[in-house]
Prior knowledge:
Layout: H1 3-8, E1 13-15, E2 18-19, H2 28-39, E3 44-47, H3 55-63, H4 71-91, E4 95-101, H5 117-120, E5 126-130, H6 150-161, E6 170-171, E7 174-176, H7 182-194, E8 200-202
Parallel strand pairs: 3-4, 4-5, 5-6, 7-8
Antiparallel strand pairs: 1-2
Helix pairs in contact: 2-4, 6-7
Amino acid sequence: EDxxxxxxxxxxxxxxxxxxxxxxxxxxxPLGLAVEACxxxxxxIQFDYVRFPDGRTAQQAKxxxxxxxxxxxxxxxxxxxxxxxRDQLHAEGCAVSAAIFGIxxxxxxxxxxxxxxxxxxxxxxxxxxxLYPSHYGPGWIGxxxxxxxxxxxxxxALDIAEPKMADGTLMxxxxxxxxxxxxxxxxxxxEAEKRGAGWIIWNxxxxxxxxxxxxxxx
Length: 218
């Protein structure tokens, strides 16, 4: 998803600012940016929105015949892009990771977006599902409001993802740093660390509090 690139290449657009990841002609631009960032000194590049669109954009793209309805084709396109990214960035000395939808950890399908734990993790060094409890609907794992249960929601997602992970790939989820106080953020971190996983906190405004972080070691 890139507004400037999409406007410059309307023939390759799925709708809005979405470019088709199935079209390898669209790979050069993001991969070029990633290699450039690696050369500037970053040691890891994480790809976000490395997927097919969902919602209205997906409906419009399907109606126009611009998006595949085959799960295998979608997942192969996403994995193919990430494999190419891995090859190029490893050669430059950078690790590669990918953000994925949180629901993908529990889903038995690609949810229409081309992401599955089983197909993404073999081609990246780390995977970061976005495990924001506020994004899960009423009734999820038995909770009327999953947002009130940050620890159990994160624990469930990590536990169900673990057997689907490729060997050697690091689990490093995005956890919720909005709407929450310190104990709620720390509850998510605790569940990740119990399972040997890393973690990254997301706050849309870039506001991070000291009391969200575990005490520093000796």
